[in-house]
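Give me structure tokens for this 286-residue protein.
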Amino acid sequence: MNDKTLSTNELIDALENAGRTPDLDLIRTCVARVAELEPALLDLLRTTPEERYDDMEDEMNDPRIYSDVHAGYLLITARSLAALPIFGEIFRDEERQDLFEWFAPELHHYGSAALPVFTELLLDEAGYLYGRSWAAAILRKIAQLEPEQRTAVIATLHQLLPPVPPGKVEARDEMWTWAVLELGKLGDKTHLEQIEALFAAGAIDTWIIGEYEDYLELLEEDPGDMSPSYDIIEIYTELHDEAASEAEVRAEWARRNEAKTVLPARQKQNRGRVAGHTGQAGRARR
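Here you go.
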């Protein structure tokens, strides 16, 4: 695709209608011209496809359902500062939680520029719990990407921890657990006595993080879930590979004449990025 042959509007239209697996040349062209596309991409990210397209009847089979995903990925490529407040609002919106698994694994590539938005979200007790838990992970990854931010991020995560209760807690805040988890992935040992007491008081969700002994092991582990660089072409190549694999499975099922058999959930087309995750119910961290 020649980036000189399409107007800005034509490129945006092609992107909107590209579906889950856009042509890689289209993505390369959009990356090359992302500065001129930025205003339109911000508009795509700001509104849901359902709001934008009033003729969208069959959402899951309408390629435009992924338009905000593509916009977000390109804006991360550009490290668009104007997009950061929009990402912050998305992670506060329960209705847009299907986007969390797409964007959260990549937003740390903004580095320290993203700290204010996701720190504010993390500390907002009125914020959406699921979005706040992702914010904790994003901040932790920023600290790993930029070690000079480590002290500030650890201090922010510590703010979520309650005082040590005198006995067993009657009602726990799930964010205590997510804060402890991300502190563990950072290998932080400055508040171990407090964290051990919180485990003993039943303040930590062990179904998410395990027992205190498991936490001590976590402190010594390599988190292993942070890509050092952001490669949008690699991301879309992976999506193409996933689609090809799913097509092979569907073809095999068809060959076996089992049309009435429901495909496993992981083979069904959905708007979600990936399936299955230990800890974050319903969504996954790639």
